[in-house]
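Attaching the record inline, Q. Sequence:
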Amino acid sequence: MSSSHQSINLYPESVHKSVLGDPEYYPEIDTYVESIREATKGFGTDEDALIQTLGSRDIHERYLIAYRYKETYNQDLKDLMRKETSGNFGVLIKLLALPIPDAEAKIINMATKGLGTNENLLWSVICGRSNEEMELLKKVYFKKYNKDLSILVASELSGVLKKLHLACLQAMEETYDPTYHNESKAVEDADAFYAAGEGKWGTDEQALFDIICKAPPTYLQMIDNAYVDKHNHNLERALEKELSGKGKKAAIFHLNMKLNPYQTAAQHIKSTCAGIGTDELGLSCSILRYQHVLPLVMVEHVNISGRTIEERVVSETSGYYRKLLVQMIKVAWPDS
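Structure, as predicted:
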């Protein structure tokens, strides 16, 4: 179980600091920039060199490479990757060519572009975030696409999914205060959760979402314990009974990203490879987004599936795409 007083951040602290001011470069960054330039000069593209340069760097280094490439050659690195690559490999390498907040904004854009909405991809990005990174994502998305993320979500979704996403976008998680978030308050909120769901005819989804969005993880666990004491099952089971379809999946994902974030991320990676065929876009985005916390996710993935994430990737993918994903995993856990 998570004992954190706040939802986990997916970005390293260095990225948060870089967003606040001009990035601080070091000589190796210029070397990486030149390697990318050489790999894309002339006829054809050296995919192995791109994997070695972009795929072998961590989130912070890629952040610096993207900015430095633009400064040096007056061209966005993502535009170069768009021209030079294609397929699943091309999609992922283009995301790697963006600073991670911009990459997540791009993922949201991809999920809502064209006919229909990729709801699974959208809720995996928007649900279960820390306040700090939600606010950063909203700012970056508006800067890139000149559109408020809440307005986008309201236009793309409906019903339960819309209510949940709009609640998540408010970044309403409270700061944990043990004098306020105490046992008696947890019992009150457990009762309120029951009254809004299993204890009434019909379901007040907004009330349920307000509780799971506002409660910091430590306190949400207290509410969960109080609910089990009274009703012999937990909040996840209550959501399973009261909701349906993708709204149910998204709400449970949000709940568990607060209670068991690394196990939930591992389960999400596993889900992209479930059934007939692999959801390559979902797999790419999950490895990219969870890379900073991947060592902890990998432990949970072994626990729930009996094999490593690398073994899963090798069995589900091929070619340069497989090599790129494996390299990203090795960056997070060199001994994998």
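Residues 59-73 form the longest helix (15 residues). Residues 89 and 321 are 4 Å apart (CA to CA).

More tomorrow.
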